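Figure 2 data, in text form.
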Amino acid sequence: MPDWLVELWLPILVSGGALFFTSYVLRMILPLHTQDRTQLNEEREFIEFLVSQKIQPGNYAFPHPATNNPLGESNFDKRFSIGPRGLIDVYDFPNVGVNLFLTLLYFVITTALIAFACSEAFWGWDPSAITFWRIFRVISLISLMTHTSALIMHGIWFRRHLIADCTDGLIYGAITGFIFAWFHACGWGVFGGVGVATG
């Protein structure tokens, strides 16, 4: 087992579990994500149309070009300029248990990768320079970038609501940074296994 994982496995698991619980609170209890989607005016008729078309689960865009080079299709350019334009995601009935497990696994794996990056960044440092607040700042920033960067790009091109997503990232980052900094401050072997200053 790699040295960094031997040192950091406990804060990795604690952070992953904490983020999993936090994601549930943010999405299921607090009203933060209630505006992520809005209801269609004629929802029932729209669903009936999808059923009549026997649309299979998948990711769809409209209008869609006939080839992989839409720039050369005058008909597509006209349809795209007239609109409407959008994306439709159709999926099977979700397996809640599997999705919850995959969500937890996602948080654990991303946290492990953040821990690895920081262990490499702090390699060879004077232990007295690895302070509580330095660990908090570095890990919080990397965690924030991990949980928001791709969503921001999606929001730029496809008008995704970003305020709630960025708020999630800030909260995830702060939680992850605090857990790792606290474990290190306790002298439990994190990032060198020595006492840490608080400056």
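Caption note: The longest helix spans residues 3-29.
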